[in-house]
Design brief:
With 213 residues, this protein is α/β, with parallel strands linked by helices. The chain has one domain: Rossmann fold (3-Layer(aba) Sandwich). A 5-stranded parallel β-sheet has the order 2-3-1-4-5, with helices on both faces. It starts with 5 loop residues before the first strand and ends with a helix. The structure holds ligand Z5A. Ligand Z5A binds next to helix 1, helix 4, helix 6 and helix 8.
Length: 213
């Protein structure tokens, strides 16, 4: 069975820690709203009250670490709720959806980072998600640079931020591998640049993709 089809009004942002997704999301939202379109800006894990509760459980460093399959299944539990409750209804009424992370994060973190089987993740994607972004902007930055940015902001690292550099190197390699394998869906943005440059490149990539579609 093939991967779910990409939706033409669904855009995801991906990348490692400190890549600058939050800033870019606001720039993309502003660009789309300037054209008078409805935009739903959302995030994963999260995006609905129940999915945000699952997010809090996942990232809380105060309890015992989630085992890799527990983490994967909770990510997909949150995603199933997010997709059914919020994302698909927004697409159905013609809104743009901008999601800070989506299923590619599970391939990168639970597949690449934790070493779980990509075939199993693909099966979950087909059975409980059933939709892909039409465009995925991968904000790519070196692990050390991204971690330095994030550490300037976070007082206490969450559960996943507390992982070692080799984990984040595998995450980055998995993202870049997925982008190379799906050039029609992915655009890789150089996120080592100053924040305004990264945002401008992301908006230009969205506009070029929209104009071509
Ligand atoms: N996760 C998973 O494992 N599996 C899944 O399926 C999903 C998620 C969906 C929470 O996500 C965690 O969930 C995440 C992956 C995992 N764990 N990690 N690591 P998140 O998106 O909420 O967490 P995050 O990636 O750690 O967010 P982040 O560090 O906030 O990244 P960001 O949004 O890309 O960065 P930012 O907040 O825009 O910027 C971070 C700081 O850097 C901030 O102070 C900015 O002012 C600064 N910044 C940003 N861009 C620049 C530039 N260009 N220059 C200089 N400084 C900058």
């Amino acid at each position: 069975m093939s991967a779910p089809a990409g939706h033409p009004r669904f855009v995801s942002l991906e990348g490692g820690e400190g890549a600058g997704k939050t800033t870019v999301l606001e720039a993309l939202r502003a660009a789309l709203q300037a054209d008078g379109d409805e935009v739903l800006a959302t995030r994963e894990p999260g995006g609905t009250p129940l999915a945000e509760m699952i997010r809090a459980l996942l990232l809380d460093p105060s309890h015992e670490p989630a085992l890799p399959h527990t983490e994967l299944l909770l990510m997909f539990a949150a995603r199933a709720q997010h997709v059914g409750d919020t994302l698909l209804p927004a697409l159905a009424r013609g809104a743009w959806v901008l999601s800070d992370r989506f299923t590619d994060s599970s391939y990168a973190y639970q597949g690449g980072g934790r070493g779980l089987d990509a075939g199993f993740i693909a099966e979950l994607e087909r059975r409980v998600v059933g939709v892909r972004p039409g465009l995925t902007l991968l904000l790519d930055v070196g692990v050390a640079q991204g971690r330095e940015r994030a550490s300037g902001r976070d007082l206490v690292p969450d559960r996943i931020e507390g992982e070692r550099d080799d984990f984040f190197e595998r995450v980055r390699a998995t993202y870049l591998g997925r982008a190379a394998a799906e050039p029609a869906r992915f655009r890789v943005i150089d996120a080592s640049q100053p924040a305004e440059r990264v945002a401008a490149d992301a908006v230009a990539a969205l506009q070029a993709w929209r104009d071509a579609g």
